Amino acid sequence: MLDCQAEELLPEEKEKLAHPVVGGIILFSRNYHDKRQLSALVQDIRRYAKKPVLIAVDHEGGRVQRFREGFTAIPAMGEILRQSEHQDESAAYAKACGLVLAHELKTLDIDFSFAPVLDINGVSQVIGDRAFADNADDVIRLAAHLIQGLKVVNMPAIGKHFPGHGSVAPDSHIALPVDERDFDEIRHTDMVVFERLIERDLLDGVMPAHVIYNQVCSQPAGFSQKWLQRILSDNIGFKGAVFSDDLSMHGASVAGSYLERAEAALDAGCDMVLACNNPKGAESILDGLESRFSQLSAKDTKKQERVMALYGRSMPIGLQDKYESAVKLIKTLSER
Fold this sequence. Notes:
There is one protein chain. The protein is mainly alpha-helical. It has 2 domains: 1-57, no CATH class; 69-278 and 292-334, Glycoside hydrolase, family 3, N-terminal domain (TIM Barrel). The protein contains 11 helices and 10 strands. The chain has helices spanning 11-17, 35-49, 78-82, 87-106, 136-152, 183-199, 225-235, 258-268, 279-290, 298-308, 320-334, and strands at 24-27, 54-57, 59-61, 64-65, 112-113, 158-162, 178-179, 205-208, 212-213, 241-242. Helix 1 crosses helix 2 (35-49), helix 4 (87-106) crosses helix 5 (136-152) and helix 5 runs parallel beside helix 6 (183-199).
């Protein structure tokens, strides 16, 4: 999954889209001017790819909402509890957020947002109010309701950052966080959120953290066969798509060059790797992986199937009243 640099595709980006190992594009604020322009960009991405590709965005709400003008302001997930007077209201608020963000993205033919954040609001410098709450029970409850809102619009839910980024302070965008806790503490404090939602079949995808959980594995979770294959797949039973976090983040640098990072993530159990904000690094991945995927193995075919199961899920008709009611609820509660 690549990014693009501007509000229109550059000539070299049109060429990259048709590359055989490109399966998706993630959009950023720099790609948005208004809805008409974004719609044209999405159409161009689909045309120049010459194959089905996923189009995604980080559109969680709060400080991580890439499109703003012309879109409903989704609150930070940590505001839902603070602005609600009782559990039923917070549940309705969370569901409304999921429905509205999904409806507004799906209307523009964007497949999904990388959401919800399933970390707890602990000591992390990068999570904070991106999390629903400071405890697993509230995160599980509110995330489940937000996912129900996504499902009304037939949008996949992608939970991040497995097994939990909230209990370690450094920001993996600019540092390599190391979590020194033992597995039992990680599981019961953080990972239980993913376990419970997977048990309820609510997650279509998962994004692992660029965090080293030192007492479990020496590699960050996104490059770890133990975390992704033994724990997430075998023990928890997750069968959906696994996306690496952005390989340009500092937390990924431990895995080597850009190509080595991509290969390590794929070998560990990721089905799709994100290569953003470094065009040269992305090109090295495309060049390096082309021969690997010229003859798809059975394992690689399964990766492709899991990822493309998220593509092109059509939005049900007749949702306008539900959408308008959800927007009204969000605005009412956000103004408290």
